[in-house]
Queue: 4 jobs
Job 1
Amino acid sequence: FFGPTEFYNDTNYMYARYGWYNTETEISMFKHDAIFRNPNQTITCDSMSFDRLRESGTAYSNVVAIDTTQNLMVTGDYVEIHKEPELLIVTASAQIIYTVNGDSRYLHADTLRVCRDTSGRHRTFSAYWHVRAYKSDLQLQADSIFFSMADSIARFFGNPIFWVQGNQITTEYMEAFVKDNQLKKFMLYRSGMIIA
């Protein structure tokens, strides 16, 4: 199609100004102001491709993905999603904004990755290179972060620095123990320092 075009069914809506859809392979490409929307999610970007059979897709340039069921917004210039095995990768100015109890939490990194562990039972989250995070009572920077729902421990690498309620915390490596979306305790390893 060449020009503004809408596609929709009972639950999904798509729009783009240029693209194609292969009815045999069920692979599609949508370009120029592409929009995908269903009752819980909206994705806008410059272009996106989608493989319906494999349930995987890629969005390029100025990507904004919103999930209203999880109060989550993801932005970046490259987003890749696969259903099986579950995988989400966001690169190039990657950012996640997550709202809990009215408090927005911002996380920025060069690359963000969400997938399942080797057992397939637990989600893991990685943010790496130039990580920055902000919320109303906490700011941090680190080289990289790894979090697994298997043990609910967030691991911070590369000389992380935290600013928490008038305190500055520095260390070479830190483990934060999370329960009910709240930080319960933390451990500093190698050269740990807390300044009040």
Note: The chain has no helices and 16 strands.
Job 2
Amino acid sequence: PRRVCLSGQIRDVLLDRIARGELRPGQRVVEADVAAAMRASAIPVREAIRELVAMRVLDSAPHRGAWVRQVSLAETIEAFQVRAVLEPLAAESATARLCGRCGALRRAAEAIVRSARRRDFAEFQHHNQVFHRSIVAASGNSVLLRLWDSLAFEVRTRFTIDYLTSVDPVAIAREHEPIVEALARGDAAEAAALLRSHSNGLVAYLRSQLPADGRDDGKASGR
């Protein structure tokens, strides 16, 4: 159990380094280097890397090791399109559990706003993931949560950072506040509509970045 816990910690550290751009697309993740940095044995590091490969965060090949997978703009759009469906569905079930009990969710929304004001977009994305995952987890639907988790890497890319730098990030951050209030008062329909609109706004921006023919130009990001 201790080794499994450690492998999960290593996995999360690697995910955070990728989100912050410290590990770039195509950059190798060397088992020995990670073990030395984390002061861990090779076994939990190997387990963490295997899990990240299974999550499609890393690519790997025999005799080449593992490296950060590149995520295309088209993949990012598709991931947010799926989230725009999953999260409203989750809100319908989560509202009963969150009604009058949104303290943690409200604190996450406040942290997103603080990060936006500092223009710390890696921190913004971290708190944003916590916020949205909390709603999905509150649905009590393990399949829904597993599907949502499978999109975590595709939605934390350089393209989402570009979006935040192109708009008023504080305004985007504040879009989470009415979602909290809708959930707090038990208005599932309003919470679902707000979550859908929140994701679709980003999808519209990302689509505007595609070439005129609507096809992905091959550019990719892993941040």
Note: The CA atoms of residues 60 and 66 lie 4 Å apart.
Job 3
Amino acid sequence: MQSSVQLTASGKLKHFLTVSGLSKELLTEILDTADSLIEVGERNIKKVPLLRGKTVVNLFFEASTRTRSTFELAAKRLSADVLNININTSATSKGESLSDMLKNLEAMASDMFVVRHAQSGASHFIAESVTPGVAIVNAGDGWHAHPTQAMLDMLTIRQNKGQFEGLKVAIIGDILHSRVARSQIRALNTLGVNEVRVIAPNTLLPKHVESLGVSVFNDINAGLGDIDVIIMLRLQRERMQGALLPSEGEYYQLFGLTRERLKLAKPDAIVMHPGPINRGVEIESEVADGDQSVILDQVTNGIAVRMAVMSMAMSGQTEEQNILNEKRANESECIS
């Protein structure tokens, strides 16, 4: 269902809601497009006209720094007009429904909504039921998905490792609450990595996590053996209910990535983190800032990937609108 909502009749992207259900070929097209756009950020004038005349609305119902900033930069580098809605001071605080707010924004000739929401499935609901004529890009929905984060991570891995086949990737930390981890796992498996490992205490693992296509480790030392890529995750205290951890200090002792633990992985292993980083809780500062860290590369790649996704989705929406206009014209001719 989700893949059909995301794609045009010809298989092009028109929304980007999740990596689940998308083909290896389409994920690779996103990466290739992003690769071609990286150099835009190196120009004196950091602009291309791919979304000139289009209006992109950022709707962030949850706090964000990196994601919101890189989406805004991406849209502006594509030459779009950008509107950032302050949800706390919007009409929804006066009782207006989300549906009414979105339909009003659509009536202002908006072309794309970038949506972050605490409810899983919110972006899918908007794309399918509320404003299907507007391109929707999911900037994170509940525990469900964060597809652009997954794709910028895939781009970072490909830049450093060249290919996905044969790689062993470890995702360490709060798997249970991480929409990032869910999207990463799906993307890694679709792109053909050899093995995806999740390393965490049992209290921070989803039930039946093996069904996602991963190997499970409760011991970080065992899980890091022969690993090519290490992805650390933030402890999401704001989503936790109950005492899932004894203390952050004990968590760091058992699952924090230190210089000594990094030596257990392959010598050329790269270290990643979607941010924000909690130093001394998930990762040692010397590792986060070390030679094997590609964390800042992830941020840079986030702009290119979001430019790619936005331009591809807008192209798909334009294709659908042209088909619809042609159909209406043919119907009009038949009536006349």
Note: The first strand starts at residue 55 and ends at 60.
Job 4
Amino acid sequence: DSTYRIFMLGGSTMFGYGATSDKTTIPGYLKEFFYRDYEEYDIEIINSGIQGADSFDELNLIKTKLLNYSPNMIIIYDGWNDLRERNSASTIYNNWDSMCKLGKESGIDVMVVLQPIAGFGDKVLTKQETEFSKSGKDYGNNLLINSYGKYQKYTKNLENLDSCEMSVNLRGVFDNESAPIYWDQGHVSDKGNNLIAKALQEKMIQLLPKNLPKSIQTEENYENKNSQTEIQIRYVLSNYKTPMMINKIFSFEN
């Protein structure tokens, strides 16, 4: 009862595939942001991303597991895997609607977020990102860019999702970025995760109750505070180096 618990669901992009550490995933950055800006409150961010998961997997995860862990908020980060699975716009809408209704029945705030994909927004793509957008395929080995129209329908259905506390379209979250963000059609760098986390925090704050539970200082809090310098270093390096190189740098104990 003393903790405000937030679960974050999605595929490998939420899980953090390609991030240089757990701290530089989307949930990792959000944990940092909330600890910094809401230090006096006990807000828990839990990464529930599963590589390859689509909206069917997320709905099942909520039903069979997450409701047992007393969530206060659930963030659904979707789009890319459903598109690659060739799920129809009506299918993903029904799954989103079911997740949101489960939330309402259980007193949980549910936010559905449509994720960015290279070539599906207005970002000026680098040469390599352009190649990613043209060569990315769905699980039937079809060029994903040919499903652009279907993603437009996903977007329209997101706008019509009335059963959720909030729905957020992040297709354009990188539109003002000219530097490389994507390292394939959907996975992004630490900088990309940072930008997504900042955009999400602005929305999540709107759903936080006024009577948040106060935080109890723990050893984990202390460790989080001491990790800020490492996070800042990782963020700077992520703009210039590959995830593989960064992991190699930080693999040494000292």
Note: The mean pLDDT is 90.
